[in-house]
Amino acid sequence: MFDFSLLPITPEQCRAARNYFGWPQAKAAEESGLPLHKIKRFESGNYIPDSEFLEALRGFYEKRGYQFDNTPQPGDNAKRSGQVFPSGVVGDDQPPAADPKNYRDRKGEAKVHHMRIALQDEGEMGRALDLIEENEERVAELLRNPIKTGFFELHDETKADHAEAVRLLAENGMLFARLFGRDIGGKPALDALRDGKVKPTTTRDLMHKLHADAHLVAAGDVEAKERRKARKPSTSVAQALGLN
Fold first, then answer.
1. Are 123 and 225 in contact (CB under 8 A)?
2. Distance of CA 98 to CAs 1, 90, 92, Å?
3. Angle between helices 11-20 and 51-63 (to 10 degrees)
4. In CATH, what is the architecture of 4-106?
5. What is the Cβ-side half-sphere exposure of residue 160, based on CA atoms within 13 angstroms?
6. Cβ(171)–Cβ(211) under 8 Å?
7. Where do the structural domains in the chain lie, given as residue ranges?
């Protein structure tokens, strides 16, 4: 198990310092100028950002007057032992005591070991992670909607909600694949598909057209981001799946 105490700041210290000032994570990111997605994932305890970020985060809270308990030079041991990673997800290095093939014997232990994100662009990685979180929040909202029925079948509104949830989960699958260096179905001709300059001829083209704005937002396209913000809830399955 990775020893977080070797880092310049631990997830627990990060949460404690932020809560001391009464800030939500977004406010801490705004005040510090540090990436929100890194703060969120570091505080969750399953992600180790780069050492420069961790030192900047600790320094920010100290400059604001927060006193940390471990006054010795933090992070020195981690740097000497090579346990501060440039970026990635950490898990338990020790195999479970029981049969490792039996999922139920793992008792919820982390099963990912130093998994590296392939995207080298920090901005693109952050935007992709923010989109994933945004989609998850929208799906959670949709899943709370009660089922509506018509005379003989589900109401169109319920069908549209279900289709939109499925679309967003599929979009997250695409975004996760991008994080690890894979483009499902190949590199899409985003602008051409989005603007209708290229007519879809395969199901792959339909999928790429459906997810075009997500690709563009991750790449930093401001207009695509505004289009997503202005998008209204779907009223039909066809609309939710981008078929009309």
1. no
2. 17, 21, 15
3. 30
4. Orthogonal Bundle (1.10)
5. 13
6. yes
7. 4-106, 122-240
Amino acid identity for residue 64 in this structure: R
d(CA 39, CA 121): 17
Measure the CA angle with vertex 57, ends 53 and 60; round to 5°.
Answer: 135
Specify the 3-state DSSP secondary structure of 89: strand
Give the tens place of pLDDT for each residue, 36-94: 888 988 888 878 888 889 999 999 999 998 888 654 343 344 444 444 444 444 444 44
| Structure-block tokens of residue 70 | 């471990």
Strand partners, 213: none
Tokens of 112: 């990912």
Maximal CA-CA distance, the chain: 70
Model confidence, pTM: 0.61
Token code pair at residue 224? 């695509």
